[in-house]
Predict the 3D structure of the following.
Amino acid sequence: MLLKRICFLFTLTALSIIVKAQDISAYNVVWDSQSKNSSESMPLGGGDIGCNVWVENNDLIFYISRSGTFDENSSMLKLGRVRITLPNNPFKNNFRQELKLKEGYIEIAGEHNTLVKLWVEVFKPVIHVSITSNDKFKAKVIFENWRTEDRSLATDERHQAYGYSNTTPDKIGVFTRKDTISPGKSSLVWYHRDRNDEMIIDREAVQQHLGAVKGQLWNPMKDLIFGGELLAPGMKFTGTMDSIYVASKYRGWVYENTQAVNAQNIDIVLHTSHSPTNAGWLQGLQQEMKISAATSEKWNKTKQWWAQYWDHSHIYINQDKKGTNDKGREIGRNYNVFRYQLGCNAFGEYPTKFNGGLFVFDADFVKGEYKNRVTPDFRRWGGGSFTAQNQRLVYWPMLKSGDFDLMKPQFDFYARALKNAELRSKIYWGHEGAAFTEQVENFGLPAGHTYERLWGTDPFKPRSDSSSTRVLKNVKGEEMKFTDYGFLTNVWVVDHYDGQLEFSKMILDYQLYSGADIGRYMPFITSAVKFFDQHFQYWSKKLNGYPLDADGKLIMYPGTGLETYKGATNSTSTIAGMKTVLTGLLDLPQKYGTPQQRAYWQAVLKRLPEIATREKDGKTVISPAKSWNGKSINTELPQLYPVFPYHLYGVGLPNLQMAIDTWHHGADNKNQYSIVSWHPDPIYVADLGLTDEAKDLTTQKLSDAKYRYPTFWGPGLDWAPDHNWGGSGMIALQEMMMQTVGKKIYLLPAWPKDWDAEVKLHAPYNTTIEATIKDGKVQKLKVTPASRAKDVTVMPPHGS
């Protein structure tokens, strides 16, 4: 059916005037009752700050998080919790809490015209709270901190410091160190200082046979201090109190109004810096304090940023069905509402984490096994470690949404840690290129427990030669043993370096879409390619006595089909990644790459083997690899990576039917199909033009979360709120609406005709598409620049 539809495509050459799209305010999240606990919180953020805001038992409470707050264990620590109590309980009988998306702030209203406004500056690390009421009041503000004593992390708590996952306290001590808290008359200063003598990077360097070059490793946590100052003018410090929230003991520093007022402002200024002395950090904080007060100018700048953010793009569905239970409208709303969460870390020093971002709430409400056992800092899969296959889904949708500035923290992550990853290759195998493994710390080394489970018998010594011995096979099938200090003993991520190819592809697409200068990231991309070329030649020479096969092709072994097909030769995901990245490099403007570099890229491209196919159920399908050891051990479909993210197959591309058959017949177990968490199945079917399946799976993916806030998905396979769950759903919806091949733009390639829509999306070559869709047809279309209208092909109505 799809092939027949493609034969009847028609091209729009005339432009219509676009109708004005709805206001994003139609999607404001409104609650008319208080919350039960932190899992029913509402996200608030801006710049690189995130707050979980809720009202519980008449108290306004919010957690504070910020990008880059890593302790010496590479845990991502929250900055604290604030509780505000108004004695006349204005929220008891009359309550309304609203996230106003257009301006990026939360408003809470109660009796006596009580109004609380919370907002975060986009361009400075400051949180503002203003309280007004017709009746005079004496407010109480409490800064709550659970890190008042050093805390030894129990074994099941060490998932938050992922490098130490599953290690035991008797083997290796891991502590969350206490904060420093200094109350003043009407303000409070607090901070966490990382201990340079307990750095996980130093321990992992020794463990991973990099102790001799430890001094050459970039360490982003050295001398790191983070915290801030709470300002409560007109209030005074009245003492401390001790209590428990959920399961964690905490101490509160209490501030109260000295006299009854009709208005009270509270400002919280955050500061993070690298300083060898506490005094240096305090001096930096004082500089921030000089411009801490809320002003109309700051408010207007923040509103303007959010207005521009919303103007970048949107997908609105079935807007005329407001007030109904229409699923299409729900999906469109959640697409946009989740995008707000991504916008809260626009300028973070570090990427938005796939496992909660800046909005992690208490673990007791996520997974039962952690009930009464961990602190508010806890999240599974770590705070300072990054898993490439999950992170990618947070950032791919930003291309079509036009949120190009938001992508830089993810790209910078690899650029900063590049030298560490290159040092691994040099020390272990004596060749060039970056060796970023699938699960890396924020400084680019593998998470310790993936290098060796439980850190071996002596965690303070290099991994033993016996633990570093691996058995590989040459092309004759003969087994050979090697001592390889570079490989990971973790069965899931051994030989898994594909993430650096995918993010290289993302950076190249970023340049293609935006025209931005990617010179800063070229060393990472070229190093990623060089690693695979030299690494496989290195192993082939050791195993077979020659670097390339008789046809001059790479023998891509030892490899892996993601985490699922191990011991692979010529992994499809790796070949597809190499092919698209090399092609993208060669297509760049001439200023990128010397003639020598371009000749090398061309040579590597010629060395790539073909993607393997196989027969299943009487169909020719894409194989996950040429060969691999044993069965599929995880739930990924690397055989569909040539569809997404690499777009070698899809609408408007050759051999589409083989890719469709791969979706229907190419899996090796039923668990490889899912919509939960990071699973990209809705994206695959959208890119294959399978409208009914895309509608069904994307609806499942983007339907309301089980938590009160509609896009706090999870926990699924990861954590809550699950950002790669939302990201994968966003990508799927975008691909249903628009796909691109070269300069061609296909509209409605998998869009159901019963979803009316207003859309604004971005395409390559600085192009934007604005359209109104009714009954599966484009009623209005605006293409910018107008010269690109000739490249747009609208597909006819299809699907249910």
